[in-house]
Amino acid sequence: KAGVTQTPRYLIKTRGQQVTLSCSPISGHRSVSWYQQTPGQGLQFLFEYFSETQRNKGNFPGRFSGRQFSNSRSEMNVSTLELGDSALYLCASTPREGANTGELFFGEGSRLTVL
Amino acid sequence: GENVEQHPSTLSVQEGDSAVIKCTYSDSASNYFPWYKQELGKRPQLIIDIRSNVGEKKDQRIAVTLNKTAKHFSLHITETQPEDSAVYFCAASKNTGNQFYFGTGTSLTVIP
Asked: What distance in Å separates the CA atoms of residue A93 and residue A73, rounded to the nearest whole number?
């Protein structure tokens, strides 16, 4: 089975631009969540989607948004980029339905650099 | 919201020694506590987890203990090997979906 796939792997943007990141979960996984990883901050939860609906949202400004498609693929968008948005964005999917299902299967991440 | 604190931030041990990483959480409703290992340049991967109805769980050289009263849980690695060198993250979750609160990570170095 293919793992979680994230594209693009690396990207460089300038302040004020917007960016869209894509995530394809493991086949059969319907829950997709996004995390921001920065040095010293660990992984911070952005949002979770299940069956095309946002189920949970972290404490990030409205510039961060996401969506999920009927095939469970997910995208996240960051508008009006700031220098502090530079980070590794990790997508994770989970194998079972329902809450608190256990293991997160992470993708390799999209590394965003904002200049 | 939940707050997970993790200590130490860096840890160096000699090969064969034990390593212990500790985490505390603030929300008594949290009931699932996984540990992830992230090797340099790679994705985080689950190494062990524990649910709130269990006090201890062991998997070969790795064990996790949970003290619900004190709201803390720990990762124990025995007989450490160089391949154990990585960043380890603890996390906590409630039964409200797959929203996890992660600690800030511990960089473990095992010296051969």
From this structure: 10
